[in-house]
Specification:
Layout (H helix, E strand, L loop, with lengths): L10 H11 L8 E4 L6 H6 L5 E5 L3 H12 L7 H9 L7 H6 L12 H19 L5 H17 L16 H4 L17 E3 L3 H4 L5 E6 L8 H4 L1 H8 L25 H11 L2 E9 L6 H8 L4 E14 L7 E14 L1
Parallel strand pairs: 1-2, 1-4, 2-3, 4-5
Antiparallel strand pairs: 5-7, 6-7
Helix pairs in contact: 3-7, 3-11, 6-7, 12-13
Length: 332
């Protein structure tokens, strides 16, 4: 997924810094990814650690994490169920009416055919679950597969804060449900869907990795439609973009973020804490250092990298911008 703050390109650098800092062998480590998003960092460590604890307050993230982190044994009938979903006839439902082309709400997030196929798949997955035809593991595997496949044909620039006026080429392509294949491991893992500052009081481990929101952009607003597909409930979408009520993180609020981070660090029952942040964040390096140094030994690693964002000023699809990524390290 094209995801705000994704650590896909940085996961190797993050892993190297973590493995070089800690003294415990990875095979004995309980690793927690507390603001996990799509789970890239947790997935990087999953094959090598004793256990991954993954958490995110957003439901669409929780679905992805339940599949990519929580699922650890093969799903025997995976190909059968995926084939069934791809063979379904289109069906006009909540997504088609409220977010599809020619729907009653006139929101162009998906083509008419793709919106109706998403409805058909989502309703079928729910029916299978209700009738006991699929297990919980199969449910999250199929729902994660649907979310990622829907995201690939969404008619947006990147996030769901707005839709494009005309269907772009990728949004015109028929949706194909691709399997969200996960790493097989012998060990079980834990996945949560909670506020991070509340969950941190209930868990413990060896390595805590933090990748909170850096700025004022709320993930619940930017990915509201993925939450709606995951939840598939009846509500009245608000405004031009069809927003639902969403969780508002204190980490996106300048007046609250420092206090929220300090409270989290204070309550963390982990020896090593690693915090990803960058030079565009609400907190400065000095502010984070001051918080970390209250609780133990602090060090900082930095890396410059090129990230890409939509270029609205000309006809090119993307332009590069240089960002400095910080990895704040605390040994409590």
């Amino acid at each position: 997924m094209n995801y705000i703050g994704s650590k896909n390109k940085l996961s190797g650098w993050i892993k190297n810094n973590i493995t070089q800092t800690i003294t415990t062998p990875l095979s004995e480590v309980v690793f927690c990814d507390l603001f996990a998003g799509t789970g890239i960092v947790g997935r990087t460590f999953k094959p090598e650690v004793k256990q991954v604890i993954a958490n995110d307050v957003e439901l669409y993230s929780y679905v992805l994490l339940k599949n990519y982190i929580g699922n650890h044994l093969p799903i025997a009938k995976a190909a059968f169920f995926i084939e069934k979903l791809n063979s379904l006839s289109d069906k006009k439902g909540f997504i088609a009416e409220n977010y599809g082309e020619n729907g009653q709400a006139n929101r162009l997030y998906f083509s008419e055919e793709n919106a109706q196929k998403i409805d058909a798949c989502r309703q079928t997955i729910a029916t299978w679950k209700k009738k006991g035809e699929i297990s919980e593991n199969e449910y999250y595997f199929l729902l994660a597969s649907l979310l990622e496949s829907a995201d690939k044909v969404a008619n947006t620039a990147s996030v769901y804060g707005a839709f494009l006026k005309k269907l772009k080429k990728s949004a015109e392509k028929p949706i194909v449900i691709e399997p969200a294949n996960f790493e097989i491991t012998k060990n079980e893992h834990q996945v949560f869907n909670q506020d991070s500052n509340q969950l941190i009081q209930k868990i413990e481990g060896d390595v805590l990795y933090l990748d909170p929101p850096y700025n004022a952009r709320q993930y619940g607003a930017n990915y509201h439609l993925l939450n709606t597909i995951a939840e598939y409930d009846n509500f009245i979408p608000k405004g031009k973009t069809g927003l639902r009520n969403y969780y508002k993180s204190a980490y996106c609020q300048k007046g609250k973020v420092a206090e929220e981070l300090e409270e989290l660090i204070k309550n963390a029952q982990f020896k090593y804490i690693f915090l990803s942040y960058n030079n565009e964040g609400l907190l400065s390096v000095a502010q984070i250092r001051a918080i970390f140094e209250k609780f133990g030994k602090y060090q900082l690693e930095t890396k410059k990298y090129q990230r890409f964002k939509a270029d609205k000023t000309n006809n090119r699809n993307h332009k590069a911008s240089s960002t400095e990524e910080y990895l704040h390290i605390l040994e409590k």
